[in-house]
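To close the chapter, one final illustration. This time we ask the reader to focus less on the individual chains and more on the assembly as a whole: which components sit near each other, and how the overall shape emerges from the parts.
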Amino acid sequence: MKLDSKVPEGPIAEKWTRHKFNIKLVNPANKRKYDIIVVGTGLGGASAAASLAELGYNVKNFCYQDSPRRAHSIAAQGGINAAKNYPNDGDSIFRLFYDTVKGGDYRSREANVYRLAEVSNDIIDQCVAQGVPFAREYGGKLDNRSFGGAQVSRTFYARGQTGQQLLLGAYSALSRQIATGKVELFDRTEMLDLVLIDGEAKGIITRDLITGKIESHAAHAVVLATGGYGNVFFLSTNAMGSNGTAAWRAHKKGAFFANPCFTQIHPTCIPVSGDHQSKLTLMSESLRNDGRIWVPKEGKPGLTALEATKIPEEERDYYLERKYPSFGNLVPRDVASRNAKMVCDEGRGVGATGKAVFLDFADAIKRLGKDVISQRYGNLFDMYQQIQGDNPYEVPMMIYPAVHYTMGGLWVDYNLMTSIPGLYALGECNFSDHGANRLGASALMQGLADGYFVIPYTIGDYLAGKLNEKVSTDHEAFREAEKEVKERIDKLLNINGNKTVDDFHKELGHVMWEYVGMSRTEEGLKIAKAKIKEIRDEFWKNVKVVGTNDELNMSLEKANRVADFLELGELMVDDAQNRKESCGGHFREESQTPEGEALRIDDQYSYVSAWQYNGEGKEETLNKEPLMFENVKLTQRSYK
Amino acid sequence: MNMNLKLNIWRQKNANDKGKFVTYEVSDVSPDMSFLEMIDVLNEDLTRKGEDPVHFDHDCREGICGACSMVINGRAHGPKRGITTCQLHMRSFKEGDSITIEPWRADAFPVVKDLVVDRSAFDRIIQAGGYVSVGTGGTPDANAIPIPKKTADIAMDAAQCIGCGACVATCKNASAMLFTSAKISQLAVLPQGQTERYNRVEKMIMQMEEEGFGGCTNTGACEVECPKEISIEHIARAHREFIAAKACSHNV
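The assembled structure is written out below.
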């Protein structure tokens, strides 16, 4: 099937402006005749729900948490990029665009990324107007800092809690619309299926997590802003409830899934301490501004942080500064992660498990003083001490890479519409802007760009043609979808096997991390595929879900999500197998430069893989959207 | 190093159930586990035995989403200051300890199941006025209004609130004044919040009372248990705002 990305004609800097003029508008007085469903209340979902309601549409907004303010965007620490060029250091929309395409290792769609850079400045203005307390300089102007993969300071931040502050800004806008009645909020409600009528998205099926009630909701369009699927790995920096179910169910109804194997492994996380571990905690990348990453030149098994302070300079290997002198500790995330794995594989890893490297602030504290460091990173240092028991003001931190973000997601066109008409995907839920590797401080930018400044324009183009269309849950399609959802829940509750949902989730996670994690091989992927199938088969025969549907039932919620991860995991393997090149976070050992860097094969793989579902147990069909680069020259990424 | 512990946990099937404490023994608890991971281990055991696991709210497990909410040995979020339940680690306990775990208790936070409570009253307080009424688009350049660093810092101190409800659970009056005042204070000090300053404080306080939260009697317990260490200075500021608002109110 040919994929139409609907990228507008014209020079890149004019595309969005022209497109906004060319797409259809819905008359202000007619907007109240349309109902829109928005699933998710993170940066993408909350900003979209609020902005669409402000325009006059009737919005139904859903989240599985007890409050929209708890969506996982809240946990983003470091900051948000924008091309304001306030520090006068050479930034521009074009440079932000360029850095993002390059950072993504040339596997994103140019036009989408340019638009992202273009609206980035509006986001900062919007958030400040809402009262988001960004960090400021003494003169009262906004402060900026640097992030990985950039040589300018373009990152706006609110201490180490930027995601929180931006989300609370969007949540406040959403709350205002809830108060006016334009948004109807459904908290503790999970989407379990998408409903199509005549091939177009016209509603969803939900489960009330308190009462278990299965309900239908109809609308003229459905917007998914349900985040990423990093929890397929069991251990990740995602929230415990983050899941891929909404996106996966949409995929099974016909939405193509793009680049599922593009996973970001974040370099600065707190290392795993034991089997009981339920999740991993990220330490913001902003720490790499002042922290220096090193391991001993000669392996010292079991080296503790306290012992490390006594190791003389000449016996330390600041490997990022050595290998990448111009970017140093601020190389992009994929490069930093892979190098950490390499030094640990060489036997130079530190700590009890040997799977950690040092992030050392001794020099920065000497240079800037403890107060400055505390102001910049105080809450992160406290968090570290709480979890690890070490004081990072006195001894180096220990860090190791962990799954953090998924660049892959539902395929969308320039309007952010999926391959199902009327179904949109925003933020991490779609695939469009980060290619094979996302740069730091760009996730917040994309979530808010999509929600505040893209979907309010592009959704009108679809809706304008549906003016007098009545939507109702009376349609047979809703009954069928409800029936399927109920049958699946009954099935899960009646297996009554011997293993818990977490047992299966952990098994899947081990396979994914081992074979589909930081480096991937043809052989490993084959093993992974077979193992995932085995785990999935056993799951449906031997999982134990206690309780009933008609109550708050955590086991059932998890079982539903893990069942989907068991399918999605296999598609990630298929995608990784198909893409025999290395690019960004996708490292195929068979494709590397003599120095061990990711080696792209542009003439064969400059495309987006868009997978099409063919039915239960069948292999999926690969559709390709070729990527054209007219404004950025493809080069071997170099951060030396 | 590993510990054996006795847990007295509040079990309540649903909002209508009376509820009771049930005692569980857990063994081989590693000091590196987080408190919630210790409950995970208990829940896995319960599930294997076919019993209903202990339900509790949790999500990010890094102290920022505000979902987790347990009263541990009589203290909201447990014995340590400045952290949430999910940030509490088992190294804060010792072999043979008996630990009592309860939900937030307040009329305005009815129990949903076990340790899960309904905190939607907080959302409604924000909906009453905890925002700047600015629509998407058409806003001035972010640097157009300089804001003194000190002011931005005060706003940020207040804005850190994670809406967990520990302040309510701790207060003998079950007052939501720390939560409500944090938002009032953030927007009262910033220039962006000036236009609706007085209207906001009146509406938010009114909503707080309507939800059934008690009044503030300045005991300061909330400040002690707040995982983000939000100061009761914000309550003082909210009081001043409220008095000023009354003096020039259009609402009464």
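The longest helix of chain A spans residues 554-578. Chain A is about 35% helix and 15% strand. With these observations in hand, you are ready for the problems at the end of the chapter.
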